[in-house]
Design brief:
Elements (H helix, E strand, L loop, with lengths): L3 E11 L9 H9 L15 E6 L4 E6 L15 E2 L2 E2 L40 H5 L5 E11 L6 H13 L1 H14 L1
Antiparallel strand pairs: 1-6, 2-3, 4-5
Bound molecules: iron/sulfur cluster (2 copies).
Length: 180
C-alpha cells in the first residue's frame, strides 16, 4: 500500500456538443510541444485528436493517454443519440493497432501532459485556444495513494524495447555513451 498524499488533480471536461471540429486544439498542442517551442506545428504530433465526420455531425476531441504494448482482444463501437462512432473512438491509448497518439517520425508514444511547463500555465493551451468552450479546465485536491507512473521518457524507452528488444536498445545506448 502506498503512502497517502494530497494531490492536485487536473481535469479537462469535454463538452462534445460545443465542439465544431476546428482543430485549433491540435494545432496549438503540437506547436507548444515542438522543439524549440512554437517552431513548427503538425496536428499529427498533437496529444489531442479530434474525431471528425462532418456529414454525420460528429466531432469528438480525445486526449492521448497511456502507452500500451498490446492491443485489445476485441473492439468497442458506440452508438450515442443515433450516431455511430468508429471503433475505439473514445480510447485514449497509444496502441499498436492504430497510428494516432504516436510521433509520426519515430512512432514513439505521445501522452497529454496537461502542458506542464515552468512557470506553469494558468490553463492548458488547448483549453485557451478552444474558442467554443468545448474544453473546460478544472482543478481539485484529492487524497490519493502515491503511485509511480512512468514518465514520457520511460514510456518511450518501453515502446522502443517492445519494438527492437531491450538488448538492442542497451547496445545502442552503450554506443552513444562511448561517442559522447
Ligand atoms: S478547439 Fe475546441 S471546438 Fe475546435 S476542435 Fe478543439 S475542442 Fe473542438
Ligand atoms: S492539455 Fe496540453 S498536452 Fe494535453 S492535449 Fe491539451 S495542449 Fe496538448
Amino acid at each position: 500500500m502506498g503512502e497517502k498524499k494530497t494531490k492536485r488533480v487536473k481535469t479537462i471536461k469535454v463538452d462534445v456538443d460545443k465542439c465544431n471540429g476546428c482543430r485549433a486544439c491540435e494545432v496549438i498542442c503540437s506547436a507548444f510541444h515542438a522543439q524549440p517551442k512554437y517552431s513548427s506545428n503538425n496536428p499529427g504530433r498533437a496529444r489531442i485528436r479530434v474525431i471528425r465526420h462532418p456529414l454525420k455531425d460528429i466531432y469528438v476531441p480525445v486526449y492521448a493517454g497511456e502507452y500500451t504494448p498490446a492491443e485489445c482482444m476485441g473492439r468497442d463501437r458506440y452508438v450515442i443519440d443515433g450516431k455511430e462512432y468508429e471503433e475505439c473512438a473514445f480510447c485514449r491509448a497509444s496502441c499498436p493497432s492504430r497510428s494516432i497518439f504516436k510521433e509520426p517520425d519515430s512512432g514513439l508514444p505521445l501522452r497529454c501532459d496537461m502542458c506542464e511547463s515552468d512557470p506553469p500555465l494558468p490553463e492548458p493551451m488547448c483549453v485557451q485556444w478552444c474558442l467554443n468552450d468545448a474544453l473546460i479546465y478544472e482543478e481539485r485536491e484529492e487524497d490519493v495513494e502515491e503511485e509511480e507512473r512512468p514518465g514520457e521518457m520511460e514510456a518511450g524507452i518501453e515502446a522502443l524495447a517492445d519494438k527492437y528488444g531491450l538488448e538492442k536498445i542497451m547496445e545502442a545506448l552503450s554506443r552513444m555513451a562511448v561517442k559522447s
